[in-house]
Amino acid sequence: xxxxxxxxxxxxxxxxxxxxxxxxxxxxxxxxxxxxxxxxxxxxxxxxxxxxxxxxxxxxxxxxxxxxxxxxxxxxxxxxxxxxxxxxxxxxxxxxxxxxxxxxxxxxxxxxxxxxxxxxxxxxxxxxxxxxxxxxxxxxxxxxxxxxxxxxxxxxxxxxxxxxxxxxxxxxxxxxxxxxxxxxxxxxxxxxxxxxxxxxxxxxxxxxxxxxxxxxxxxxxxxxxxxxxxxxxxxxxxxxxxxxxxxxxxxxxxxxxxxxxxxxxxxxxxxxxxxxxxxxxxxxxxxxxxxxxxxxxxxxxxxxxxxxxxxxxxxxxxxxxxxxxxxxxxxxxxxxxxxxxxxxxxxxxxxxxxxxxxxxxxxxxxxxxxxxxxxxxxxxxxxxxxxxxxxxxxxxxxxxxxxxxxxxxxxxxx
Amino acid sequence: xxxxxxxxxxxxxxxxxxxxxxxxxxxxxxxxxxxxxxxxxxxxxxxxxxxxxxxxxxxxxxxxxxxxxxxxxxxxxxxxxxxxxxxxxxxxxxxxxxxxxxxxxxxxxxxxxxxxxxxxxxxxxxxxxxxxxxxxxxxxxxxxxxxxxxxxxxxxxxxxxxxxxxxxxxxxxxxxxxxxxxxxxxxxxxxxxxxxxxxxxxxxxxxxxxxxxxxxxxxxxxxxxxxxxxxxxxxxx
Lengths: 414, 237
Fold this sequence. Notes:
The complex is a heterodimer of chains A (about 425) and B (about 240). Chain A has 16 helices and eleven strands. With about 425 residues, chain A is α+β, with helices and mostly antiparallel strands. Chain B has about 240 residues and is an alpha/beta fold. Helices cover about 30% and strands about 30% of the residues of chain B. Chain B has seven helices and ten strands. In chain B, a hairpin with a 5-residue loop joins strand 1 and strand 2. Chain B is globular, with a radius of gyration of 18 Å. Classes of the chains: A alpha+beta (about 425), B alpha/beta (about 240). Chains A and B meet through helix 1, helix 13 and helix 16 of A and helix 2 and helix 3 of B.
């Protein structure tokens, strides 16, 4: 029966191709808009999420923040914003199992290195051993710093691939750079370093147009150079089996309790896990996408009214046909099914065309905005379901009208 | 011809409200029996009530009072929702204006009543071809109504009326829209159905000439049967 009705519906749609197309247009535009917007939204969410994940989903940043930023701070107060080595030790002791690494970094400053009359720029940063893990930095050649480098503050450095290319040419050999000494001018103070390793330089992650690239040294070396051992924030890398969101709550509770006197009533412990930021961000993006999609869905409702309009016209035109069918024994339900099928098929064809157009639009828009297109399957299911629902909903009342026609009047209709 | 009564109408009255308190009675108590295998014509001028009677006999409409029994089923007792299936099973309609479904080919038109009766697609097709062959329209079974002449359309309509092998064929002015030549052809088909297949046929017409072809003639005027006679000229009781 369903098959027969679909066949009837297709015959009727074919008989009025232009009218059917115009009717579908509303559905096509509505579905295309929803799909395109959801695809762009999804692509953006996925793109941003990927970028954030590259910073490490297990990372938790810990610092002490002022509660009220409008308050002036005394020198003694400034002192209270620092994380002392004791605090960090107690943290490691307390959460030994949950902590994979602790990353501390301290900026030394922007430096220039003169090589063959070329100025090569670097951002010198002192780091702890955990830094490389927290920031997912991988070596292409050479080695990370050893225990002695860290404890004695040796003037060794890990430089970027880009740096290696800048000093030794595009087709450099590792030995051209590894173990070589360079003199770095930082605010007219000179720092002599020896290259221990070269790390993979991620163009996408950093600012590719910047000439300057980060250069890492053991944190003790940085302290030696700048005579400043202050730590204002650390990054805790949670171990594989630890839920970073839950762990950051534990960290906050622990530190708030431990540092009660230091915090007084002016400061608070600020603990942010990347994971919760990613989740918050994804949630926000999804909400935004949904909100815009809902606006686009209005087009679908307008399209649905178009379908209802055309079904009403079609049924009036076919009054005699309906009368004949009823006279020949079509039950009311069959008449109803016939016209509802017609509305649903109309909407479904419109929906499918809309999906194709929406996918193309979404793909192009995502590319233009610089994100890898990420098709939302949910949006496709939703659109198909929605357009069928529109067909049923807006087809119902005209179909009901047809089913309730009196066969004698319908047969006599001119 | 067997003697069992297929259709029995007793004191059928039909009235319409044309705004209270006026009530317009169209049929004033019709008594009518049709035996299985009869070919009866109901003749009357327009406005005589013959179309109203046909609608009631065709279960398209209900009488205001009186009883109507078809093949032992008391139609007046049947619930509304069963009327379409009663029509589907018992009655084959042939209309003056053919009423074929537009944009649908002849064979699909003939299959339609069987579709509503729940006959399988294969059986439907086979039966439709046989019926179209019977009315001489097999070659044109894939033509749509607008590709057929009036006479051809009416032949397809007769094939469609026969689809579910109904107890009775109700033909309402079947030649009314046709020229005399094609009208003749259509009447010949009815005679053939009656004589060879023993079909019960009720022909509704305003033409005495056409009615004269049938073995039994019932004349209706102003909502009453004014004469009922067999075609040998003698009145029946």
